[in-house]
Design a protein that fits this description.
By secondary structure, the protein is α/β, with parallel strands linked by helices. It is about 30% helix and about 20% strand. The structure holds beta-D-galactopyranose and zinc ion. The site of zinc ion has 8 residues, from helix 6.
Length: about 675
């Protein structure tokens, strides 16, 4: 954390998108600004890819065109999130110094011609990036349109060049002190990998066979830190001229190339880019989970910096969003804590790789279905202005840790079918389906106050974090661990002794072997799960797939057992006698998982705080502050029972005992004052 976060000025729920005026002539700028006003746009992100126009050749900075754009926007009351253009260096930079270009894991240098073509460790790149950042900040820090600084764009480049190798060695020295300590921590006694001198340590470039997992894990940690260092350098350059306005960089949800938890404290505003696939029925739950991650990183409201109002163009087959889905995607983000909805991009590009990406003004213009939907969303967000700023902590925490995920998903584990994000999603789903709020936390966070903490797959757990989790349990918390958790320590070394090694005493069970089930990951390859007759709670019967473990109860309670297959009769779900620590050693079917998790939640006094009496299947409900969002995903109308009369803030209609929601419809309810 670098001091208190700077906040955006209050302005209800923000609305707008990326605006790339450099792709258009002056007459279009004027049309754009008028159309933005008509659509209720409050905020645009400008300058993300403007480097080659702002600095056509080294040190010749041309600002007049952007002055004009900012003045026009300001004249219309539209505020600007002004970006540093450093995500896409101009062609001259690679000519000036080809080593500014990144190198891939095979050791090949990439070329200019796309974007994000920079090596985070290149001194030339950094120097030129900071120079243009300073020029932008100096020129527009006093401009009244500017409300926030947007550093780079989706910082995510990993580079394997010799210079990054040098920086990596510096990073390792700081972490381990000596080569001997590194050898010990990584465990380089295997395969004759022992390093005798620092110079021998390089980035984990492609090799004939498997790489050392501690080596690759540390490289991912290093790569994340290198990007964070770039962000900080630009942020600090901005701070030299503007000490007041918030600085952000747009994140990418659960993106695997950076540890956002370690970045969060440096971002004044947590902003995220979210592109759920409208063709995938799993998108709503995944989007909600990702939004909850952002709200948790922010510990408060966050900003949806980018989304699509229609189709993207980077999937093999790009299904557009219906008006209903577009509205739901936007309002879901608000329901999960976003204080604004910005899209990529305002006007569709006629040229370039993204010529078929949707935009708020499509190629066909403003007299279109899509643009009318964009205008309607502007009105919807205006009607929900009071929601802005509201935030409350959830009662359930779901644990996620980037390094743990990286380590768990290295090759050569017992099964590649046990994946972290699908596990998180499966455990999150029952709460999402019933409208129970969930925060996404890290085992190192302060978990006090959460009634229930869920760790669906926390493979790597440092000694400190293990001690914290133990303390959370012994202080009266309730922790549920999923399969293959607490297996490795902070250096990705497997903990020896019965597992889950840091918890066997509290749990009252000891594991001896991992037992991936024959048949791999398919839903058809299952074994049975049956409740243990002696268990006080009944999770019912069901099925388990993919994964099992050989567990032996000591003083714990067996809740369910495997039925059939090689693991017939072994415990699948155990808990401590005091009901505070739970361990699930498999992937159960969704019904059993839901019954178990919601049972736990109920015993812990977790309840959805909703005016809705029962959430029908296919309906998504989420509470934020004083309002409740209801999204009908079905193709048929539903009636949602409510306990108290409610007002739909979107259309002003008051409902008594039942709220009708049309197919694909969204209502936002506020309990009527009685
Ligand atoms: C984002 C990026 C935008 C645009 C968008 C298209 O990753 O930040 O510049 O490319 O995707 O979906
Ligand atoms: Zn590099």
């Amino acid at each position: 954390m670098t001091g208190a976060r700077r906040a955006l000025p209050a302005r209800g729920l923000r609305y707008g998108g990326d605006y790339n005026p450099e792709q258009w002539d002056r007459a279009t700028w004027r049309e754009d600004v008028a159309a933005m006003r008509a659509a209720g746009v409050t905020t645009v992100t400008v300058g993300v890819f403007s480097w080659a126009l702002l600095e056509p050749e080294p040190d010749r900075v041309e600002t007049a065109w952007l002055d004009e754009v900012l003045d026009l926007l300001h004249g219309a009351g539209i505020e600007v999130d002004l970006a540093t253009p450093t995500a896409s260096p101009p062609p001259w930079l690679a000519r000036l110094d080809p080593e500014t270009l990144p190198v891939d894991a095979s050791g090949h240098r990439l070329h200019h011609g796309s974007r994000t073509h920079f090596c985070p460790s290149s001194p030339t790149y950094r120097e030129r990036a900071l120079a243009i950042t300073r020029a932008v900040a100096r020129r527009w820090a006093a401009h009244p349109a500017v409300v926030m600084w947007h550093v780079n764009n989706e910082l995510g480049t990993t580079c394997w060049c010799p210079r990054c190798g040098e920086a990596f060695r510096g990073w390792l020295r700081a972490r381990y002190g000596s080569v001997e300590a590194l050898d010990a921590a990584w465990g380089t006694a295997v395969w004759s990998q022992r390093y005798a001198r620092w110079e021998e340590v390089a980035p984990p470039l492609r090799a004939p066979y498997l790489l050392h997992p501690a080596h690759t894990l540390d490289y991912r940690r290093f790569a994340s830190d290198a990007l964070l260092a770039l962000y900080r350098a630009e942020r600090d350059a901005i701070r030299e001229v503007d000490a007041v306005r918030p600085v952000t960089t747009n994140l990418m949800g659960f993106f695997g190339g950076a540890d956002y938890r370690s970045w969060a404290g440096d971002l004044d505003v947590i902003s995220d880019d979210s592109y759920p696939d409208p063709a995938d029925p799993g998108s709503p739950v995944r989007a909600a989970l990702t939004h909850d991650l952002m709200r948790s990183l922010a510990d408060g409201p966050w900003l949806l910096m980018e989304q699509a109002v229609g189709a993207v163009s980077w999937r093999p087959h790009n299904v557009p969003k219906t008006t209903a889905v577009m509205r739901q995607d936007a309002l879901r983000a608000v329901a999960h804590g976003a204080d604004g909805v910005l899209s990529f991009q305002w006007r569709a590009s006629p040229a370039g790789p993204e010529r078929f990406h949707s935009a708020m003004v499509p190629h066909a213009g403003t007299g279109t279905r899509l643009h009318r939907a964009v205008q309607q969303l502007g009105r919807d967000l205006a009607a929900l202005a009071d929601v802005a700023g509201t935030h409350e902590r959830a009662e359930v925490a779901l644990l996620h840790d980037w390094p743990s995920r990286w380590a768990a998903e290295e090759p050569a584990t017992p099964s590649e079918h046990l994946r972290v994000l699908p596990q998180l999603e499966a455990w999150y789903r029952p709460f999402w389906e019933t409208g129970v709020g969930v925060d996404v936390r890290h085992p190192g966070d302060d978990l006090e106050g959460y009634r229930l903490v869920l760790a669906p797959q926390l493979y790597l757990l440092t000694d400190d974090d293990a001690a914290r989790l133990r303390r959370y349990v012994t202080d009266g918390g309730c922790l549920a661990l999923g399969p293959f958790s607490a297996v490795a320590d902070g250096n990705a070394r497997v903990r020896t002794g019965p597992f889950p090694a840091p918890f066997t005493d509290l749990l009252g069970a000891e594991g001896e072997e991992w037992w991936p089930l024959p048949g791999g990951g398919g839903d058809d390859d299952t074994v049975g799960l049956v409740p243990d007759p002696a268990s006080p709670e009944d999770v019912g019967s069901g099925t388990a797939r993919t994964w099992a473990e050989v567990l032996r109860p000591t003083h714990g309670v067996v809740v369910a057992r495997f039925d059939g297959g090689d693991v017939d009769g072994l415990p699948a779900l155990v808990r401590s006698r005091d009901d505070r620590l739970h361990y699930l050693a498999t992937i159960p079917d969704d019904v059993l998982l839901r019954r178990w998790l919601l049972g736990l939640a109920e015993r812990r006094g977790v309840a959805p705080r909703l005016p809705v009496a029962a959430v029908p299947a296919g309906v998504e409900v989420a509470r934020r502050g004083p309002v409740t969002f209801v999204l009908n995903h079905r193709r048929t109308a539903v009636e949602v029972p409510v306990r108290t009369p409610c007002l739909d803030l979107l259309d002003g209609v008051e409902h008594q005992a039942r709220v009708p929601v049309p197919p694909g419809g969204t209502v936002v309810l506020r309990e009527a004052l009685t």
